[in-house]
Design brief:
Largest sheet: 5 strands, mixed
Strand content: 15-25%
CATH class of the domain at 40-201: Alpha Beta
Shape: elongated
Structural class: alpha+beta
Radius of gyration: 30 Å
Number of helices: 8
CATH superfamily of the domain at 40-201: Glutaredoxin
Strand order of the largest sheet: 6-5-4-10-11
Order of helices and strands: HEEEEHEHHEHEEEEEHHEEH
Length: 283
């Protein structure tokens, strides 16, 4: 007969292994759980971001945020340059999306501004991330002005995030939990739209920029107004969708114009024989 200790020994070994692993698992789980309520977006549509905030750009120059709030709407991203996964995807997909938009270009119509949320950010990391991203852009002259990468010691970044309603938290060194959101600012620095997700549809970005510029962007402001009339932002789906009622109004107006033109044509044809008969009678 086996000794009782020999019988329970395997179970005891399993228990010890689980007891060894469990605290670290629980600790990691607890840290993440505590971080989640501090990460998110409190939308502040119409609020103005502080234009007097001072940052350092990728070349080590001191700049004001307001220096970039001129000449068109702004795409604002809050990221950090040592981010290993999410942020590089955001930059790559944003560069691809801008290249896919027809009729608008960051070279002339709008700017992209990326601000780091890491208070320990360095110029070397900012420059490396800037150059990596700029290589994805095509036909952009002066990318340092059209898509700057800014950082500071934390105070300006926190003020900007608070004004924009973006909540993030530090998990450990060089690791932050933050929402995947892009802000669209009007030319005077007001928050016009929040676009969520890693990948942006070119249509959503174009419509958000057009909306932020009040249609005064690109080569055809009149056409922009027509497009804005046909689309609306669906807050539930977080994307732009066709406005069915407005489309029906446009279609109805087009039908009325066609009917009016047809009636006018028929009326003019009916008038011609009378006029010709009257002329012959007078002769």
């Amino acid at each position: 007969m086996k000794h009782p200790l020999a019988i329970i020994a395997p179970f005891l070994a399993i228990f010890i292994c689980l007891a060894t692993l469990l605290p670290s698992r629980l600790a990691a789980h607890t840290i993440r759980d505590e971080a989640l309520p501090n990460v998110g977006v409190d939308e502040k549509l119409g609020s103005r971001v502080p234009s007097d905030l001072i940052f350092t750009d990728q070349d080590g120059r001191q700049v004001r945020l307001g220096d970039y709030l001129t000449g068109g709407p702004v795409v604002l991203t809050l990221n950090y340059f040592s981010c290993p996964t999410l942020c590089p995807l955001v930059f790559r997909n944003l560069a691809n999306t801008t290249a896919s938009i027809k009729g608008l270009s960051p070279d002339r119509d709008y700017r992209i501004v990326t601000v780091s949320i890491d208070p320990e950010e360095t110029r070397e990391r900012a420059r490396a991330k800037a150059e990596e991203t700029w290589r994805m852009l095509a036909g952009i002259t002066g990318p340092d002005r059209r898509w700057p990468f800014l950082f500071d010691n934390g105070a300006s970044g926190r003020r900007l995030a608070a004004a924009a309603g973006v909540r993030y938290t530090r998990l450990e060194k060089n690791n932050f939990a933050h929402p995947s959101v892009i802000l669209i600012l009007t030319p005077d620095g007001r928050v016009a739209r929040y676009l969520y997700g890693i990948e942006l549809r070119p249509t959503d970005l174009k419509l958000a920029l057009t909306e932020a510029a009040d249609g005064k962007i690109g080569g055809s402001p009149f056409l922009n107004q027509v497009i804005l009339y046909c689309y609306h932002y669906d807050a539930a789906e977080r994307r732009y969708a066709l406005a069915a009622m407005n489309i029906m109004k446009i279609a109805g107006g087009g039908v009325l114009l066609l009917l009016g033109g047809l009636l006018l044509l028929l009326w003019r044809r009916e008038r011609r024989p009378e006029t010709a008969t009257k002329i012959r009678f007078e002769r």
